[in-house]
Amino acid sequence: MDTLIDLGGGFASALEPASLAFALLGVLLGTVVGVLPGIGPISAIAILIPVSFGMEPVHGLILLCGIYYGSMYGGSITATLIKTPGEVASAVTAIEGYEMARRGRGKAALATAAIGSFLAGTLAIIGLTFLSPLLVKLANVFGATEYFLLMATALLLASTMSAGSRAKALISIFIGLAVGLIGLDFQTGLPRQTFGIDLLSDGVDFTIFAMALFAIPEAIRNLALGRGAKETIQSFGEDKWMTRQDWQRSAGPWARGSVLGFIIGILPGVGPSLASFMSYIMEKRISKRKEEFGHGAIEGVAGPEAANNAGVGGAMIPLFSLGIPGSATTALLLFVFTMYGLQPGPLIFRDETGLIWTIIASMYIGNIALIILNLPLVGVFVKLLKMPKEILFSAILVLVVIGAYAIEFSLFGLMMLGIFGITGYLMEKGGIPLAPAILALVLVPLLEDNFRRMLQISGGSFAPLVTRPVSLSIIILMVAGIVGPMLFRWWVSRRQLLADVTVS
Amino acid sequence: MTAQRTDLITGGVIAVIGAVYYIATFSIQETANIVTPRTFPAIVGIALIVLGLFLAGQAVYRARKTALAEAGPGVGDAPGVGIGDGAAASAGEAADPHEPRGGVTLEAPPEPATRKVVFQFALFFVYLAILIPVGFLLSTAAFLMGLTSIYAPEKWIRNLIFSVVFAVIVYGAFVYGLAVYLPVGILG
Q: Can you tell me the distance from the alpha carbon of A174 to that of A441, in angstroms, rounded to the nearest whole number?
């Protein structure tokens, strides 16, 4: 009941004109960055951090959260119409959605994506509304040991759940940790890893690092590619929106995608992009029309798009109630909270009740705005795709530079931006994912602080890890979460092998 | 460049960075705390060395296995290493699919020529270096004009208009709208 009263209060202030305007601006900007390939929510939020510094905290946070969930909607438009995902979580939509568009079913693909996104997004926010207060109660028994473990779990999951080489994902995490440890040690005040450069003793600014890694390599790569083959944008004039059959075929994937996305979103260290991949694989497995997959199966759009939006809502739960980000984007949002002097977690629900519930309420409103804006304005968003590449990416570079300048006001800050831009480019070239490094950079001070406190309280003993019931449960879940999938894969490959042997 | 070769180089570079990072921890002052300021950096340095060597070793091992498989007659179980290896992962948040073979194959984005990438970065650094002394308006307009003209020289009028207008609008928005004072440089 308290929750509903708090939420009601949140709605009252989220519906004030200024809050409403920032929510609308956020989802609109989010849709735009989602639509534009090469600029995702991470770059957009990082670029806007210096801008939002001067805003009221609640407005800045409403704006930046809106960009995050708004971008999930926009991504599907680009994926469907030019087969390039506007952002990663829409990568699988580029498979089925594009095929649907080619067959004159583009409107249906966009509609199922938008409606699925709305339903899943809203369900996830309802989940966020009621689960967060519960988690906050649980968090009251959390000590340094549990926080340390949760953060370690987030980092471990971020590496085991990523694509390609696990060693490379781990390397990315340790690069993030290495950069995060540069500067004065906050406990002793001693300089660390500054390589004799005094300016480094303030540490590497998180926003500069995030912008450098996410915006610069992408912009430079696209500019260096020059004018490639012109992308053909699928058009739709006479297409029908969703038919009765489309609704029937979409309902199941929407529901399954919502649940799956929400659960994956809550897990620390895993973002909504994994949710959309898993949903796609699941829909393909259980479908009675397997042969349609790859040729425009509507389930392959409905499920993943629902899943990535539910994933965003899920990912907000550990961020709001524990102050632990589960992905690179929520890591950025955590940074924004601390920039305003706020500490997400149990305290924010106690001391800043109005603020946190206003943000949550604004997410309900934002989702409604998205579904209203999205379909009628598709034509406008498509025009964005016609913007010449050189204009888009050179403008992004300038915005990134302004962002870095507004943080440090120095040549040193600008050079850091350039150097980490090169670092990001080389990491991508070596196949090292960038997102885990960002997560690690945000988590390292918290990780180290809680590790130290844990050992200080126990007098140097690691025993609390297993003697405290909550921390022991986390360890058990962590082991199950990492070993479980490994065993499953081993079992599947063994079965496959056996099947092959029997056939031959 | 094969996937193994890239991994070998990447692993080697990471191991070297780890070593440099680890050596740098020796200049951190020791304290009597249980977890000294050196503890975490040292762990990170060692982990980077180990992971770098592991990646390089794995690349050598795989290259050998591939060579053997090619040499062996007929047993055509050519391992499909490196199809889009990591390309999907590098794009953003933990992307994943567990099973590269069963479900999802994503096309790797095309790779630009190294020469062009170096040139773009060089141009970017020149912009970073002149921004403060020359000022935002002039350096930004010049940078934008340069970039867009390499791309589409024939549209120079459009490029010029875009470069100047964008620089002016952004300057106005930040300085007058957001009170973020951008460098005025020689115009000031």
A: 9
